[in-house]
Design a protein that fits this description.
single chain, 15-stranded mixed β-sheet, elongated, Pdz3 Domain
């Protein structure tokens, strides 16, 4: 479930819970406690430099020319600087290219773990009259996921439970980004062989918080002072406390309200290093009826067992959408 579902624009500043199913949530005096997440959130993450997502030709007076392709650039490459000037946005890149008036530029390119320089000669677009190098690029990625926990005392939150990958299947790196409250307006149900997804809408231009870190086990950041937390406090479980058997998750698959759904933990693998510490099975008939099981956008949904937060959903099994993986909460908290 590594793909972030696309969202629309819209406004929300707090959340409440609908309790269903079984079990209770406890806050131990001897264990650290956090607020349970479960609310959907929209993420707009800045990558720190433009990334090439497509190569194209430019129509000039003398015919079609492809400067970037001829220079050996590829989809997935990042443009770090041009003529020694650090590039952070597409707007900044376009300005430098257009003001070059066709003079040769030296661009610093990152491809995977390799960094190198290439020479590019922008050409004048016959239609628009601007200088171009023949690329399609982006400097941010947007989508929806689920908040796992909020540490109100520290003003921090954790979400998603896994990394985000781009078109080149490599983990995205971010400089920063915003996290917005989000309302779920529709669901594409999951079926065998094809993952479903949540469709969400922003509810405000006021942020839930600021994303500061994207890594292999989720998105982490600073909570907005304007965000009102009215949820449930829960103790963080130690890695050794998770067991096979009944548990539940909090997730939002309609509107803005997290709902509790029954699941079963069918496997515990504490040593797994790929965010797959648990195999879970959705047993809640209401959730299966609504979504088919686990769908994209539910990543980060907190897993509760014996009244404690033990982890978060991370992936869905494509051959069985009622089953998926979960990450140990201690792995997320360490980040």
């Amino acid at each position: 479930m590594r793909k972030l579902s696309l969202f629309l624009l819209g406004a929300l500043l707090s959340f409440a819970f609908i309790i269903g199913g079984f079990g209770s949530v406890t806050a131990s005096a001897n264990a650290a406690t956090v607020y349970i997440g479960g609310m959907s959130a929209g993420f707009t993450l800045k990558s720190g430099s433009p990334q090439i997502v497509g190569l194209c030709e430019v129509m000039t007076e003398s015919g079609m020319v492809a400067p970037a392709l001829n220079a050996g650039l590829r989809t997935g490459d990042r443009i770090l600087s041009v003529n020694g000037i650090k590039i952070e946005t597409i707007e900044q890149l376009n300005k430098i290219i257009d003001t070059s008036q066709g003079k040769e530029l030296t661009a610093e390119i990152q491809r995977g773990d390799e960094t190198f320089n290439v020479s590019l000669s922008p050409v004048k677009d016959k239609v628009g009259g601007r200088y171009k190098i023949g690329i399609l690029a982006r400097d941010s990625v947007s989508g929806i996921g689920t908040v796992t926990y909020i540490d109100k005392n520290k003003g921090r939150f954790g979400a998603l439970g896994h990394s985000v990958v781009g078109e080149n299947k490599r983990e995205l790196k971010i400089s920063d980004g915003n996290v917005y409250a989000c309302s779920i307006v529709g669901v594409n149900k999951g079926v065998r062989g094809k993952a479903g997804e949540l469709r969400g809408m922003f509810l405000s231009d006021k942020t839930l918080g600021r994303a500061e870190k994207l890594c292999y086990c989720g998105i982490f950041g600073e909570l907005s002072e304007d965000f009102s937390v009215n949820g449930l406090l829960c103790a963080e479980a130690d890695s050794s406390e998770a067991t096979l058997g009944n548990a539940y998750i909090y997730s939002t698959v309609e509107g803005v309200t997290p709902v509790r759904y029954e699941i079963e933990i069918v496997k515990v693998d504490r040593q797994n290093k790929e965010n797959k510490n648990y195999v879970i099975k959705i047993t809640d008939e209401d959730l299966i009826s609504q979504t088919g099981g686990i769908v994209q956008g539910m990543s980060g949904s907190p897993i509760i067992q014996n009244g404690k937060l033990i982890g978060a959903i991370t992936h869905v099994f494509l051959n069985d959408p009622t089953r998926g993986y979960g990450i140990d909460i201690q792995t997320m908290l360490q980040e």
